[in-house]
Amino acid sequence: MTSLLRRASWWFRDYVYAIAWQARAAVDRTDPASFESGSRTPIVVLPGVYETWQFLRPLVEALHAQGHPVHVVRALHRNRRPISELAEDVTVFLEQSELRDVIIVAHSKGGLAGKLVMVGRAGERVRSMLAIATPFGGSRYARIMPVRTLRAFSPLDPGIIGLARQQEANSRIVSIYARFDPHIPEGSELPGAKNVRLDAGGHFRILAHPRVIAELAVLAE
Questions:
Q1: Beta bridge mates, 177
Q2: Quick one: pLDDT at residue 220?
Q3: Under a CB-based contact definition with an 8 Å cutoff, are residues 184 and 203 in contact?
Q4: Residue 8 pLDDT > 80, yes or no?
């Protein structure tokens, strides 16, 4: 299979996965509090833009099955607001829930909010973050997006540039991403972090990749 055909296949399967899980999320009425039990390291999940926590349901279930209490920040809704506002919601959640030694597991935009939390006043409450397909350096496609929510991912956006300059938390971050990401052609490599490049393609499908759980197991030791 040529490189072009392989990428087309990855792209197609990625969107099939996303559409299927968005559809399931729309009808899922599970109370996220049902995943908050467990004696291992607490997990806080941060979904990506236009995603609810239900989109990460397979990952949430896998983490909970391993004994981790998994917490959902309900105030995030579908993550359409500026990253600074989302980070403040997460910070308040950590403070009010009195959570410490937390591992953040974040997808896409959620990883940007997670890093901002780590360099803010609640940073000492976070042990580490596993960021999946996060546009730490932005995405050039964002420049042509019709809505501000997506244009905010431009590499030239002040928020993206400012967050990139704050590198003190990078050593506590594992950035895991696909060889080919149709949304982030630049990739998700983060200087100073542990970068894991999967020999796979997609922005969404890698949420179910076994390496994600394997990397979390290392962080939770």
A1: 197
A2: 85
A3: yes
A4: yes
Is there a contact between 63 and 33 (Cβ–Cβ < 8 Å)?
no
Cα distance between residue 35 and residue 23, in whole Å: 21
The model's pLDDT over 20-37, given as tens digits with 9 standing for 90+, comes to: 888 887 788 889 999 999
Are the beta carbons of 60 and 53 closer than 8 angstroms?
yes
CA dist 93 and 170 (Å) reads 22
Residue 71: how many other CB atoms lie within 10 Å: 22
Position 135 scores a pLDDT of: 97
Q: Give the Cα separation of 131 and 215 in Å (integer).
A: 10
All residues at 6 or more sequence positions from 169 whose CB lies less than 8 Å from its CB, including other chains = 115, 118, 119, 123, 129
Measured CA distances, 69 to 45, 168, 198 (Å): 11, 27, 27
Chain CA centroid to CA 60, Å = 12
For residue 213, give both structure tokens: 């759980």
CB-CB contact of 154 with 160 (8 Å) = yes
CA neighbor of 9 nearest in space, from 217, 211, 202: 202
- Which tokens belong to 139? 């995405």
